[in-house]
Design a protein that fits this description.
By secondary structure, the chain is mainly β. The chain contains 3 helices and 44 strands.
Length: about 750
């Protein structure tokens, strides 16, 4: 089965010429119009608008129609569409996203750990994975940059970056209203309205209301979990008084109020008996196919709440024909209150409340120079200050027993993390002789972090004498220099090749799970660094009916920040590992005839640890656990592949019918740093299909589709806290689900 789908993927790609480039399918045109070539794709991967074929960066781009054809409602819908990327809803959370690109990401979801893939909306950096499960309701374009982006994007983009660009009011006059309904109580509404208020002023407003009843059910109470109830609104005001100045003010807010996100306990849940001493099995680990039934110790009303709001002001001045100045100012505020049942059972073993009240402000300046022919330069400065106070509670009344009765246990945590980040960067692109271009850049970054933490533990009788508080505060700063260089050759008008080297830097920090005196003395961990070397080829046929890319890369990744599970309540963070990661990525699209589009992506990756220093694997260590190993890098399947086919039937004056579908494949994936077998997912294949009717002038659109057509059951994430009740919880992807949407454009 594995070879079968890989063969399909490779065959689809080879329909493109010997050179490959990621390409979008045709944009919507009036029904009956026949396409003769694939549309040109432009990206802003290097902080300026360029053809995707001219950029020496591995980048995939998706417009509004392509996102719909992916059947993506949030950024999680990109799973399978980008080679060597793993993107999933964060473990146990309705409002966070976990992203790995080329084996690099954020293994621990806590807010004191930084992401390894940068998330940007309209060039504003979002520093937390909480609140980053974006609903795609007014997106102009979405770009995924693979590999370190340390020069132009800075820290915490070691794996790559995901860039969302929302619609500009001047460029998108008119609007649309869309309603979607589906099974599991899915009901969604979206709208977008934009127009000129005067010759120099334009505005837009976009909104979305997204609900579903949930895919997981309590068999006893009938209550549903893993649901959604999200409201989002974005307003923009664009001002262009002259040809050489423009400004866009953007205001947005998102609110989510959902029930718990429950997983499945994969290993036996254990209770420690203090007297008599021993271990009690509370619940055996589940095996076989999951019936999507779960229980929790939390009460009604203890769910997951988020409010995420912000404002940004982007300004551009064309100083003269050569120089342009950009300014991007932003302020964001994120508030969450999430109950998370980590053990996914009716017992209190690892149940927590995590409440954040984060805010960040940032300012970026860019000065662009273009001599109009062979030289372009970008100079910039960046400042960000982030404050993340949080309050947490951990409930574990069933973790210990004494004389047959549970021992009440509560832990409260108050912490506050402040990060100040400054950077300066420069990047030059120079065609030094015809057809040969060199691009080089460097960024200097300084991160300063201040951290305060207080942990109080409360035991019930007869162990109240063990109650106590552990507190500490610490500060540290790190600097990094992240250069990049590429050499590019245009072999012809339609074929380009490049080689590049890029360095990435992920900030150090403090262990947000430091609950003991020993932990506080070893709370600091150092930054991660990666060097990635890349060879790429991009091209198209002369008639622009086939395009594609081929990329090979090698990454040297050091000081991997691994959070491990040691003793009860002890979770050290180790700069444990060095890795080497190598891979190949192919992407291509072809216009077959006048109405059929074929696209395919294929990724192969070999991620391995050169070394992993883990004291728990020393047989002389009292907590030695032979079930732990580091044979596999988490969230790094060896193969990822996808083939998509779309055909348009003209109905003349009655519009057009479009039918499409895709098949995606993902190899064996490990969901925890400790490589516990129950938190792994065997290779699997997903199938999706859709049909669309467009009226002749594209005023009306009706779309119907089904995701996960074969109802494949597969794991996407895992919680690994084996030292606490043997918690090993898996989270699953969506079951088969269908929907119908109606859209009116005006």
């Amino acid at each position: 089965m594995k070879r079968k789908y890989l063969s399909i993927a490779i065959g689809g790609i080879l329909l493109a010429p010997a050179a490959f480039v990621q390409a979008q399918e045709q944009q919507a045109v009036p029904a009956g119009t026949q396409a003769t070539q694939l549309d040109e794709v432009t990206v802003t991967a290097r902080r300026r608008t360029e053809s995707i074929q001219d950029v020496p960066v591995a980048v995939s781009a998706f417009g509004e129609e392509q996102i719909k054809d992916l059947q993506a409602s949030t950024v999680e819908g990109l799973q399978g569409a980008v080679p060597n990327m793993n993107i999933a809803q964060g473990r146990g959370s309705a409002n966070s996203v976990n992203v790995f690109i080329r084996g690099i990401g954020q293994p621990d979801a806590l807010q004191t750990f930084d992401p390894g893939v940068g998330m940007y909306v309209d060039d504003v950096y979002y520093s937390r994975i909480n609140g980053a499960l974006f609903s795609l309701f007014d997106i102009q374009q979405l770009e995924v940059l693979r590999g370190p982006q340390g020069t132009l994007y800075g820290k915490n983009s070691t794996g790559g970056a995901i860039k969302l660009t929302t619609k500009n009011p001047f460029d998108n006059e008119g609007g649309a209203v869309e309603v979607t309904a589906g099974d599991y109580g899915r009901l969604e509404g979206r709208f977008y309205v934009s127009g000129k208020l005067s010759d120099t002023l334009a505005g837009s407003i976009a909104g979305a209301k997204i609900t579903n009843d949930g895919y997981v059910k309590d068999a006893v109470t009938g209550k549903r979990y893993n649901d959604d109830d999200t409201e989002a609104l974005r307003m923009k005001l664009a001002y262009k008084p002259t040809d050489n100045f423009s400004a866009v003010l953007s205001l947005d807010t998102t609110k989510q109020d959902a029930a718990l996100t429950l997983g499945r306990p994969m290993a036996p849940l254990l209770q420690t008996s203090l007297a008599p001493a021993g271990v009690i099995v509370l619940q055996p680990g589940e095996t076989g196919k999951w019936n999507r039934r779960a229980q929790t110790s939390f009460k009604d009303g203890e769910g997951q709440y988020l409010k995420h709001s912000g404002a940004s002001l982007a300004m551009e001045w064309e100083i003269n024909e050569q120089f342009m100045l950009k300014s991007i100012s932003s302020y964001r505020k994120l508030k969450t209150k999430s109950y998370i049942d980590i053990d996914a059972s009716q017992y209190e073993l690892g149940d927590v409340l995590v409440a954040l009240d984060q805010n960040q402000k940032s300012q970026e300046f860019q000065l662009h120079y273009d001599n109009g022919s062979n030289l372009h330069a970008t100079f910039g400065a960046y400042y960000m200050k982030e404050n993340v106070p949080s309050y947490q509670e951990a409930y574990a009344d069933d973790l210990f027993s004494f004389l047959g009765a549970g021992v009440p246990f509560l832990r409260t945590i108050g912490d506050d993390l402040t990060t100040t980040s400054v950077a300066a960067f420069a990047h030059v692109n120079w065609e030094f002789v015809p057809t040969w271009t060199v691009a080089a850049g460097v960024r200097w970054t300084k991160d300063k972090k201040d951290y305060d933490r207080t942990t109080s533990t409360f035991w019930g009788a007869p162990f109240a004498g063990l109650n106590g508080t552990v507190a500490f505060d610490a500060k540290a700063s790190w600097t990094a220099v992240t250069p990049s260089i590429s050499l590019q050759k245009e072999f012809s008008d339609n074929l380009m090749g490049y080689v590049s080297a890029n360095r990435g830097f992920k900030s150090g920090g403090f262990n947000g799970r430091a609950n003991t005196v020993y932990d506080t003395e070893h709370a600091k961990f150092d930054p991660e660094h990666v060097w990635t070397y890349e060879l790429g080829l991009k091209g198209s046929t002369a008639d622009h009916r086939m395009r594609g890319t081929a990329t090979a890369f090698y990454s040297n990744y050091s000081d991997f920040q691994a959070r491990v599970s040691q003793d009860v309540g002890t979770f050290p963070v180790l700069n444990a590992a060095k890795l080497n990661i190598k891979g190949i990525e192919l992407e291509g699209s072809a216009l077959l005839g006048e109405a059929t589009t074929l696209s395919a992506q294929l990724g192969w990756m070999d991620a391995k640890y050169d070394s992993f220093e883990d004291f728990r694997l020393d047989p002389s260590y009292a907590g030695y656990d032979p079930s732990v190993n580091h044979d596999h890098v988490p969230f790094s399947p060896d193969w990822t592949a996808r083939v998509a086919l779309q055909h348009v039937f003209s109905l003349g004056d009655n519009g057009s019918l479009t039918f499409g579908g895709d098949v995606s494949y993902r190899g064996d994936t490990w969901l925890s740093v400790d490589n516990r077998k129950v938190l792994s997912q065997d290779a699997y294949t997903l199938v999706g299909a859709y049909g669309v009717w467009d009226s002749s002038q594209l005023t009306w659109q009706v779309r119907a589709g089904v995701r996960n057509l074969t109802d494949k059951q597969y794991k996407t994430e895992g919680q690994e806290f084996a030292s606490v009740g043997n918690i090993q919880t898996a989270y699953y992807g969506l079951p088969r689900n269908w929907y119908v949407s109606v859209r009116y454009n005006f």
